[in-house]
Amino acid sequence: MSKSILELLFTAGFTSLIVGCSSVDNSARSRPNIIFIMSDDHAVPAVSAYGGFLAEIFKTPNLDRLADEGMRFNNAFCTNSICTPSRASILTGKYSHMNGVYTLEEKISDDQTTFPKLLRQAGYYTGMIGKWHLHTEPKGFDYWKVMVGQGRYHDPIYCEMGKGWSRDPEGGVGASYSGHVTDINTDFALDFLENRPKNKPFSLLLHYKAPHDEWEYNEKYEDFLADIDVPEPSTLYDDYGTRGYGIKLQTQKIGENHTFYENETGHLSGKARKAAQYQSYIKRYLRCVASIDENIGRVLRYLDDNDLTDNTIVVYTSDQGFYLGEHGMYDKRFMYEESLRIPLLIRYPKAVQSGIVNNDIVTNIDFASTFLDYANVGIPEDIQGESLRDLVEGNTPEDWRQSMYYRYWMHGAHFNIPGHYGIRTKDYKLIYFYSKGLGYSYDEYYPTVHWSYEGNIIRDGEPYWEMYDLKNDPNELNNIYDNPKFLSIRERLISELFELKDYYGDSDEAFPELFKLTRQYSGRN
Questions:
Q1: FRET partner for 470 with CA separation of 20 to 30 A, picked from 170, 450, 452, 463?
Q2: What is the per-residue pLDDT across 215-229, written as a single tens digit (0 to 9) for each?
Q3: Is the model's pLDDT at 522 over the cut of 80?
Q4: DSSP 3-state assignment of 53?
Q5: Which range marks the domain in which residue 64 is found?
Q6: 402, burial (CB in 10 Å: exposed 0-12, middle 13-18, buried 19+)
């Protein structure tokens, strides 16, 4: 490499600073409409355009249409694989340690700068429909209608702008609507599009609850896949042989927590029981995804019928990845590929060629800059993500990032996942499991009993490293951190990891024990 990663990132950051400080004439060119569609926990293999292990038996024709008519990103990643922090990072364009939303518990501050606020200030008509999950009343929108809390699959409760706000589904502020939440979300989104002021560009955030657990699908999909044996992922029966204790002690394995499916599998044991549990789980999951795809088709038809397709950017993604039986798991959180990687499809007929595939490394903190860039709105200096505009138009900058930084903060909560951070390049991944709660007590850091159940213990552990050769071991089965053949690559990745930590301002200085522990690896005092 002719430039270090820090030099490349500084150049990119300086470019954003220039954009943020420049004066933009919004009348100089037509500003596109923006529809940002996001599902919760939608894994890449459950989008058939990606050609994963489910693609032969499970099709998503409307999502595939976005890929066919736009760009599919193969290396899109989240920066913290858990719902609330991911959503905060998307809105702000910043990492969790910068926007203050580390876990499921923190509220996003009302004074936080977000891309919807900036678009609204610039004359966009802004809307938010569906799953919000940020614990505070939505800000920066001309109209919003959002589910209370996590939201319900059937007969969901929504709060509506101007009619009160509450985090509590039992608070009596919201209104219940009859039907399945995916259909209802789309109904509200189409109402927003139909009733918007026609003299303004619009920005709509349409966020689906599905396919989050408990995977309560629309009844009309009851027979979908019923007579089919869904293919198993090749790592369903992974024994975690070379990995550290985190993946071995985690409790998000299929057949634990709420994936028992006793009615269907209670008479079985061993491998047969796990195989049957997988079939029950994956069919519920895919039925939820099928409903999302159907409803995205409704949105695309509305754009077609109302002459809005050509001048509307449509983005589809998920707040994080999800395990569909890989490594015997469901859920997310880990920095392993299935949890880290997100689907990302972008269609904008005026600027994006049809059927293009991009392999550059992009992250969910890039969305805010991208929307602001296309809207001709100055990008604030403190946004950490980069605009994807050049990439989607087929011109990857020479100084585009060659790696991404990830951090999961909820040490021990939910499923015994250790706290960790790491770096992913196109060919390698390095993860440091620091395995510490950073000085917070159980009651202070995780103030609900939701995390406490048999088998789940929040406690500090011994730190350890993992490293993977993604080119030759895409399933991350062989931890090569201690393999002497990879020593030089390991040292380069460690150096690059700490350069990224410094660049993004994640210093750990507030946590002396971890600060001391990690700095010894960086070669700094």
A1: 463
A2: 999 999 999 999 999
A3: no
A4: coil
A5: 33-394
A6: middle
